[in-house]
Specification:
Family: Belongs to the 5'-nucleotidase family.
CATH class of the largest domain: Alpha Beta
Oligomer: single chain
Number of strands: 31
InterPro entries: 5'-Nucleotdase_C, 5'-Nucleotdase_C_sf, 5_nucleotidase/apyrase, Calcineurin-like_PHP, LPXTG_anchor, Metallo-depent_PP-like
Distance between the termini: 15 Å
Radius of gyration: 28 Å
Largest sheet: 8 strands, mixed
Protein name: 5'-nucleotidase C-terminal domain-containing protein
Helix content: 25-40%
Strand order of the largest sheet: 1-2-17-18-16-13-11-10
Structural class: alpha+beta
Shape: globular
Number of domains: 2
Pfam family, one: Gram_pos_anchor
CATH superfamily of the largest domain: Metallo-dependent phosphatases
CATH architecture of the largest domain: 4-Layer Sandwich
Number of helices: 18
Keywords: Cell wall, Hydrolase, Nucleotide-binding, Peptidoglycan-anchor, Secreted, Signal
Length: 738
Amino acid sequence: MTNVKSRTILLYGSALVGLALFANPAKADTQPIASTATNQPTTVTTSTVTTASAQSTDPVTVVTNHDQAAKPSETTDWANPADYQGKVPIQILGINDFHGGLELGGKAQIDGKTYQNTGTAARLAAYLNAAENDFKQANPTGTTIRVEAGDIVGASPANSALLQDESTMHALSAMGIAIGTLGNHEFDEGLPEFLRIVNGQAPTKEYNEAEMAYPHTPSGISIITANVVDKTTGEVPFGLQPYLIKEIHTSDNQVVKVGFIGIETTSLPILTLYDNHKDYDILDEAETIVKYAKILRNQGVNAIVVLAHTAVASSNGETKGDAVDILQKVNQLDPNNSVDVYLAAHSHQYANATVGQTHLVQAIYTGKAYDDIIGYLDPATNDFISDSLVAHVYPVLSETDDPTTKADPKVQAIVEDANSRVATIINKKIGEAATNQTITGRLNNSKTMENGAGEIVVDGQLYEAKKAGLPADFAMTNTGGVRADIVVNPDKSITWGAAQAVQPFGNILRVVKMTGAQIRQALNQQYDENQKFYLQIAGLKYTYTDQDDTNQPYRVVKMYKADGTPINDDQSYNVVINDFLAGGGDGFSAFKDTELVGIVGQDTEAFIDYITSMTKAGTPIKTPALDRKVYLTNAQVAEQAETDPSTQGNITDQTQTTPEQQEIIAENTEGGTKSHLEQAKTTSQVTIASSVARTNNQKESQQKQLPQTGNQSNRGILALVGVSLLSMLGLSIKRQVG
């Protein structure tokens, strides 16, 4: 009878839950997104951000704007200066995530349009000048302010990185950048080192000869940060200011003011080494904005611009990301916040939207684009006239696409000087290969999507993690991060420049904890999208076979350690990955939210060190056997299943350390584990900072979004009744068993 009664309650509860769902079907809150081809903005209302301290307000409307014009002079929606006589015209030109990209160029995707070969510092400077000239033609008394939103340094090419990014500071100074904030890469070598190069002070330790001889001159850039505070004092460190007020004096003796607030991403602790952030707290972005916006308003400053190193993207008529969520929270905490402009960064994507009253923009990265915001200040209110503000993002066109715009000669001279200074370092030998043949990369994959350069990279990452004293079992990298063949000279030598070309991004390498099931998921995720994105792996091998699924035609069957030991789904392992994968890059969501074990260092430096270490150990670099991914037919899988799995895979270990390698590890860890970045730099071992994303060809993760459910109040009540009856079932069983 007990079972009968229990089943009856279970059926009643299930029936009520079913009735609740039937009577209140899920309704999607989302609405169709308009094509970006239209000139009309797209309106989307995002979900409410709820916090304990937030006021109970509805979310503000998010309107995605459009940028179909390639130049300010081609734009038709600027406010008419004639309508704002007696007002003060203001232009803000912005960049973000420059990453020392003195000569970097590439594809820029803006509002559904693709521009080829955009960028370089000298052309960026020319376009900023042209935009200012266009503004001044319509507004002769106008004021232009040039700003940046973090990560101006770090993950830099050799002509910046080898000069401690001082060449970049010279270039930015020459192009008139006046105000900036901190990104995560400003912490790559510690905040004091970044502030040293901003202020043009001499190095505090020995670097390569080129850096030591480089002119150390102040940049003139005012760095502001409001939410980075010293853990001991609670104050913004090193005398930095949380905000800056720019006074503008008009020809008729009026003074208007614009306030700038600097904001760091609260993700900083997972984006840089512990020693570089351990002394600071990163306060909530929205709460900090609200705090200082009120302080500015109390000083009569109602025109407020936020420079924030937080992510956002506009795509297919929709704008979303951390920056949108932050602004929603700002509007909940203080509906009268008066934040007019928000320059975002960090995600390296295009964005242009209006969130409530705030214009939100992001200009991709590495100088491929720039923000252009124009509005009119009312001297009576010290605020922008709301309908006067217009914001756009424009590409920095190539000389081929725009031969009439010439590179800025002053910035170009800075770049050429940097190139000449680092030439000897780039050509410096760091190690040797076993033969004088180039070791090919992703353009010469095996049938199983393996390549020599990629597997040497992950072998090196696994080796360097162990050398740093971290318990690493495997290493994996996205093959899009392995950018080139390993070029070997006729004398078998490998240069610093050749190695840096293979791993140019300086991504942070981290060791994370993953279950075997998560590792299997990551490996399986290679086989969707027709293997457009795949991994290079070290320390493990696996077999895979066909399956009847058009979305994922292959599946992983068995996984093994390099010595043949099976990898079990329910056990935990430590995996070396870069920060791009850690964020789910290239669609590898299996790596997201994994537990951090430790930080190895930057991938560029790790690769250079590995080549040097192997050469010193008498084991020069050579192409591994490309046998870490083994395809089996279904018949072969069935045949293997009949045997004992423990006897399978007499696998040769391609990544186990040799006695010579173990000796090197012992030497580097004697007397305690040393951070990879604490080791002394030489001319061939230079810190190349990391990047959250990273290259034009690395696709940002595009997750399929399920629709949000609609009004669930009635469903919730009925479902609660059903769940309550189910709970009664548990009580009934307990009583009758007891």
